[in-house]
Amino acid sequence: MNKVLFLDREGTLVEKIPTKEKVIFYPKALSFMSRISRNFNYEIVLVTNQAGEKFFKAQRKIMKTFENEGVYFSAVSIDRNSSGVGMLESYDISGSFVIVDRITDVLLAKNLKCKAIWLKKGRKNETAFSAEKLQKFLALETKYWEKIYEFLKFGSRKILHSRKSKETDIKIILQMDGSGKYNICTGIGFLNHMLEQLAKHASIDLSLQVQGDLNVIEEHHTIEDISIALGEAFWKAFGNKLGLARYGFCLPMDEGLAKVALDFGGRSNLVFKVEFKREKIGDMQTEMVSHFFKSFSESAKCNLHIQAKGENEHHQIEAIFKAFAISVKMAVFRDVQLYKLPSTKNII
C-alpha cells in the first residue's frame, strides 16, 4: 500500500473555516501540494471535523481548486473527534504523516502510530508543556509549506547524539532545520552564551546537556569534548549531503570585526588568526576558543578560517561565534531544486 499524507483541512490547506463566498488558502499550499503530488508516491487523505451545508459548498470549491493543480484526494474523512482515528484505521500508515496546525491535533498521529508535521502558528493557547509532551510524535515543526516539501524530499536532519568519556557525559539533540531554539547547559556560563548565539543565528535547534569534571580539573576537557561531540552531530545530520550548500562565509560586534569562512567538504583544517590579551572571559580561558574550533573542524570534517580584531575581547569572541553561526546557516542550507552532491568528485 502507498504511504499516506493525512491533511487536517483547516489551518493547513485553508487559513480558517471557509465559506462558499470566501476561501483563503494557506500560503503556497497549492503550489507545494502540486509538487508533492507530482514528485512523491503519497496517497492524500483529507481529514476534517467540520460538516454541514456550508462546509460542503466550500468543500467542493476547495477540491476543484486543488484538482486544477493536479492534486487529488483519495478520500475525505469527517471525524468530529479530531484526536480519534475513525475511518483512518484501514490505512497502512508505515512511512505516513499527519499534517496539522494545532499541537493538540498531534494526538491523531499518536493514535495512528505515525508521525506528525506541525504547521506551527504559535497560538496563545498552545502551551510549551503540551508541545514538549508531544515532541516524540513530531517529525517536523514549521510555518512553511516549502519546508514540508523539503522534509518529504530529503528527510529529517534531526539528530540525537551522545558522547561519554571518563571526563564528560554529553547529550545533544540537533535539528539542523530549526528555528533557533536552544537549551544549553555546559557548566561554563560564557560557553553557554556563545553556543546560544550559534543556535540562534544559525537557525538550528540545539539541546546540549553536559556533565563534566569541572570540579576536579578545569574546563579544558569539557570544552574539548563538547566541540568534538557537536562536530560529530553536525556530520551525522548532513546524511547523504544531497543538495547541501556546503560553503559559508562573514560580522561586526561593536568595535570588533570577525570573518569566518567554512567548507563542510569532508576535510578538516583550522586557520585561526586572532590574538587575545586577556587570559579569561568570565569562566572560560580565551585559549580554549581556538581549541573549540579546532576540535569542531576535525570532528565535523570542516575547513574553517577565522579572523577577528577589536579592543573588547568579549565582543571579539561573540562576533566570532555569531559570524560562525551565519556561516553555518549558509552552509547547511539545502536546495530542494538541486538534488545533487556539491562536488565534481561526486563524493564528500
Strand elements, count: 17
* Spatial order of strands in the largest sheet: 3-2-1-4-5-6
List the uncertain runs.
Answer: none
Question: What is the mean pLDDT?
Answer: 86
Number of helices: 9
Could you please describe the fold and organization of this structure?
This protein has 348 residues and is an alpha/beta fold. The protein contains nine helices and 17 strands. It has helices spanning 29-39, 53-68, 106-112, 128-133, 145-154, 189-202, 220-237, 287-299, 313-331; strands spanning 3-8, 42-48, 75-78, 97-100, 115-119, 138-142, 158-164, 169-175, 182-185, 205-211, 247-248, 252-253, 256-263, 269-273, 280-281, 284-285, 303-309. A six-stranded parallel sheet has the order 3-2-1-4-5-6. Strands 11, 12, 13, 14 and 17 form a five-stranded mixed sheet that branches. Helix 1 (29-39) packs parallel to helix 5 and helix 7 (220-237) packs parallel to helix 8 (287-299). The chain is elongated and about 75 Å long. It starts with a strand and ends in a 17-residue tail after the last helix. The relative contact order is 0.10. The mean pLDDT is 86.
